[in-house]
Amino acid sequence: xxxxxxxxxxxxxxxxxxxxxxxxxxxxxxxxxxxxxxxxxxxxxxxxxxxxxxxxxxxxxxxxxxxxxxxxxxxxxxxxxxxxxxxxxxxxxxxxxxxxxxxxxxxxxxxxxxxxxxxxxxxxxxxxxxxxxxxxxxxxxxxxxxxxxxxxxxxxxxxxxxxxxxxxxxxxxxxxxxxxxxxxxxxxxxxxxxxxxxxxxxxxxxxxxxxxxxxxxxxx
Length: 220
Hints:
The chain has helices spanning 2-28, 39-49, 79-83, 87-104, 108-137, 141-178, 187-219; strands at residues 56-60, 67-69, 74-78. It has one domain (2-219). The chain is mainly α. The protein contains seven helices and three strands; from the N terminus they run ααβββααααα. The two termini are 16 Å apart. A three-stranded mixed sheet has the order 1-3-2. Helices cover 74% and strands 6% of the residues. It holds the Pfam family Zn_peptidase_2. Keywords: Membrane, Transmembrane, Transmembrane helix. The chain crosses the membrane at residues 115-137, 144-164, 196-217.
């Protein structure tokens, strides 16, 4: 029952979240905004409103691969969001621009997440080794302790990520309406797209926390 509650349920929640974000995005990527402003133009406008002119906006491959790279000050948008004028495209583009604003304003949770990136990357590299060793050679004390350390890092990182993502979405919705990029009655499509994306971050946190609690229980 512990395994089902702490591991299986979070996995199912994660799958549901992925389906939710794909469903919302696929729906609102088909709904054009009245202003016909592209995602790239929206991202640029949002950043310029905050006095940001040194962030490069580029197009990247894939779907929902959009991200902001604070190290290189680069905002990458997938093709549909870079060139598209849909409510989904504008929401995602403005969300990523929100991260650029966080970076400029030295938003504390973003600074914390950036500081955690190196150790989180290292922990992520150890994770397959821990899981492989655990399933095929048994979860002994050493494997469990390493697993706890790995999932502790991942859980903290996912926890810090939540306010970063929620704040970026809040900024995006406010700026899109405030700058006149979308009308207020178009905000519903943007909100549903960004809220669905937020579920994936919540699911990732729940999954990491579930594994951490499970391994802590196994150590007793």
